[in-house]
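Team,

Forwarding the record for the chain on the shared tracking sheet. I've put the sequence and predicted structure together so nobody has to dig through attachments.
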Amino acid sequence: MHPTLSSAETSYVRSAQLFGHPRGLSFLFATEMWERFSYYGMRALLVLYMTKFLLLPPHAGNVLGLAAFHRALEFVFGPLDLQPLASQIYGFYTGLVYLTPIFGGLLADRVWGQRRTVIVGAALMALGHFMMAFEALFLIALLILILGNGAFKPNISTQVGALYAPADRRRDRAFSIFYVGINLGAFLAPLVCGTLGEDYGWHYGFAAAGVGMTTGLLVYVYASRYLPPDQFTRSRGGDKPAPLTRSDWRAIAGLLVLFLPVTLFWATYEQQGNTIVLWADRFTDRSINLFLWRGEIPVTWFQAINPFMIFAFTPFIVALWRRQGAGEPSTVAKMAIGCFLNAASFLVLFVAAHFAVADKASWLWLFGYFVVLTVGELYLSPTSLSLVTKIAPASVLSMMMGIWLATSFTGNFLAGYLGSFWSAMDKASFFLLCAVIAGLAGGLIALLHRPLRNLIAEDQSIGRPA
């Protein structure tokens, strides 16, 4: 894109600052924003699309491979009616998009480098979203999206970390800013894709997601001169990468120890795209009388509350951590707090379901759920990404990021399985079960906090233990 730049000029461009951070952060922010717009736009529609259209006759018969896939699922999980089948498909899709990053990270570390892998992944995802506009290609489109996300996801995150020196205190804050980009896209997606899908036709919503992903790809290609060099390029400077040290293996072990509780966090958190959609659709009084607006809140719009609160709350959370100074909780402690807040959010819905009138609860309960859930997410998700980039060995950084993102694979898979009990369980009991699982995750991390100090010197460069 910029062949006239010398190596010195290229170095200067990459070090250029914007609002106290490398300029490359703003382009990675924009790229991730559009990618998340496409993902969450499609996700906001997915369960509704399946339960209200695709899995009903005669449409189900038009989907290539659906009958065979349905039989395979029933072989493992037993008979699956409409809603449990939709939940399992949701869980498999949202889970596998976080399993393939392991291979995408390995591909970037060993073969293509981060940049080329991101471009291939973005192109595949754009194709997959456009394919979703054709019901016959539904399962094939999901497969293309899974593969594309695997190539894209770990390598965009590692490039954020590569913009900063290991001891740079701005790193946690950079990931929180990056996380705002994720959630800005996720906020706009239900409003645009959801409205198009619900009001004008499902396929218009999916096509809008494809346009968003294409935009993200173009932004990323344009920004190449502001991005850090590939880890692949640095490791192939003539010598083979150094073997992993004992300290490296301890850091890897520390991340793996956290794998189970973080999986349980995502298993409950990801209900918001699955059973929470059904709660909003069938068990929530969505009527609203606000100034000049009287009517019902569209179901998909509730999916915009969480991402809106992410970028609304992030400045306050970051300011709180900065104000705490030396008393700021360690990354691992923040993760435990995040899990406990996740549990508390489901207790809000437990109370709502328990006191619902005629099986309908006010939409304000759902709003309260998202408030508590969002603060919990801010304490766990961006800080855990920062943790990986700080302690993972450089020679396997993208692969370790992929392995870490696989917590969302197991979590989303469990979310689909957990959601399959929605139709059979009392709703208050279902929410209480989710609260117990999230609370268990927080308890495990709290118990592991002291042993983890001996495994990972997470913040030794700035004098704070894990």
